[in-house]
Write a structure and sequence with these properties.
The structure is a homodimer. The first copy, chain A, is of the alpha/beta class. In chain A, 34% of the residues lie in helices and 18% in strands. In chain A, the strands form three sheets. The first copy, chain A, has an eight-stranded mixed beta sheet with strand order 3-2-1-4-10-6-11-13, with helices on both faces. Chain A has a three-stranded antiparallel beta sheet with strand order 8-7-9. In chain A, helix 7 runs antiparallel to helix 9. The interface between A and B is large, with 62 and 62 residues. Strand 13 of chain A pairs antiparallel with strand 13 of chain B, so a sheet runs across the interface.
Amino acid sequence: MRCHCHVCSLPGRVLGIRAARLSLALVLALLLVAGALTTFLPSNRDDEVLELRRAAKPQGRLVRDAFTLVMQTYNRTDLLLRLLNHYQALPRLHRVIVVWNNVGEKAPEDVWNSLGPHPVPVVFKLQTTNRMRNRLQNFPELETEAVLMVDDDMLISAQDIAFAFSVWQQFPDQIVGFVPRKHVSTSSGIYSYGGFELQAPGLGDGDQYSLVLIGASFFSRKYLDLFQRQPTAVHALIDETQNCDDIAMNFLVAKHIGRASGVFVKPVNMGSLEKESTGGHSGMWHRAEHFLQRSYCLNKLVAIYDGMPLTYSNIMISQFGFPYANHKSKA
Amino acid sequence: MRCHCHVCSLPGRVLGIRAARLSLALVLALLLVAGALTTFLPSNRDDEVLELRRAAKPQGRLVRDAFTLVMQTYNRTDLLLRLLNHYQALPRLHRVIVVWNNVGEKAPEDVWNSLGPHPVPVVFKLQTTNRMRNRLQNFPELETEAVLMVDDDMLISAQDIAFAFSVWQQFPDQIVGFVPRKHVSTSSGIYSYGGFELQAPGLGDGDQYSLVLIGASFFSRKYLDLFQRQPTAVHALIDETQNCDDIAMNFLVAKHIGRASGVFVKPVNMGSLEKESTGGHSGMWHRAEHFLQRSYCLNKLVAIYDGMPLTYSNIMISQFGFPYANHKSKA
């Protein structure tokens, strides 16, 4: 054996220890590198969810088995209080967060408290500006993974809500809700917005939807966080139009998961109480420009995101056997 | 530095080389171990699916975008031929496999060929015994991942089939079909079988189903393979009753995926042609003992599998906008 390395000139016993130390050092170094490399393993989505659970689980039990109602309100306190009486009794409701957009006006906490006790706590979040996107904040009082977001004039039956919550638990990455809408693209490349009366995109029989409106839906709280981290231009667009927060949410969900943003659950008993409001706000959608704004927002968001992330779905989910025998035709 | 190892007595240059070689050997050994350890990384379900695709993809293109119709037939050749004329024209149909249970009788290949050309190939698989489970073989002619299994008296509209196929593509691990059934457990612990008229298991409003019958459904071909590998007692039970192959399939799927075996798609236009058969077989379900057998099979299978793997679901899927405006109540 020839040896050309300089160490060969050192005494035998020193080299023996050096060989052992060198090997040990190499082993340790390799282990450290291997350990560091594990951070590059693809993170399993389930791991992300578990991370989210561990992070957001102050009480330890509630994260997937209960939900928080977030209801934004403006100038419709009569409807609000009527709806609170209805929603407060929902099974699996953890808490109600009322986003109080009546700037400068006292929240009805006194009335609420004087008519207690109540099944669940209600928190009134007084806002400093009357903004449509106020309801998309990541409120610290939000302790469940699921958010039930309802407009302050929508009465949705408890049966519909219980079922939709169970559906959300099976599709936790999507907006599971009761109001489907769609976009269509035209030969000019300009997008337009509408409901089922708008021509279907031509993907076979029947219709398609590409958005589920958030004002009657379940979605994961992580999307509130994600919304806050969207480009300022998105927030500015919503502020400019006082509209389109739901379109923006559908964009970010679709972009995040790479498939349809929502799952439509057909409501059995749901309606607007708008007409029953005495002298209150008549609703944003009555503004002349409301629907043109929706199409405008589609195209603005496509420009901001440099692409159209919304995709189509034609899945309509109903509750088997509710109403009775609804699996039969014409039921 | 003291050295107590025997190598210290060797000449210097030899130890230098030995140190280098030892380090190199250690490095290589560690890399080999690390490489071997990667096989223990959790295998992503997507990877499994890709494996399946690669394994089952002789033509390279067809595995998830087309399906194979498997239709077993006994003594109802008039209905069979009528149905073949209907099903042969389905979009995305790859091939038809007719499981010919008329033992000793010539298959109608001459008639079929003389009335060609046909949109897709049909293969007649002549059976040597008239067994219910003949249709659950892993036929070599099966080149798609999806199997559409239809009883030889069921006329399902092309629209329903196209939609159900698209739903199966979103739920490829489950039996996606048009006929839901359920089991119930009673206070005695004995299980019983039935439809929507059987009392719901009491899990909230509405009904639940725990089986989707395979005779009008899509499922993955891997379940044919899995069925063949079930305990002999399962095959014997099906042979004994000439029944319950679908119950057995639901058991094995539920056991395999640990959740509900099936997804119910509400058919818009589906019906049995049984009454229109001239002098043919009247259908197994007319036998006096047929339904009692179904309950019997439930309890036998629970004994074989040492537990009840079926779980409940109340998800009913319909095609949004087909028929037009079906998202509205009473549509």
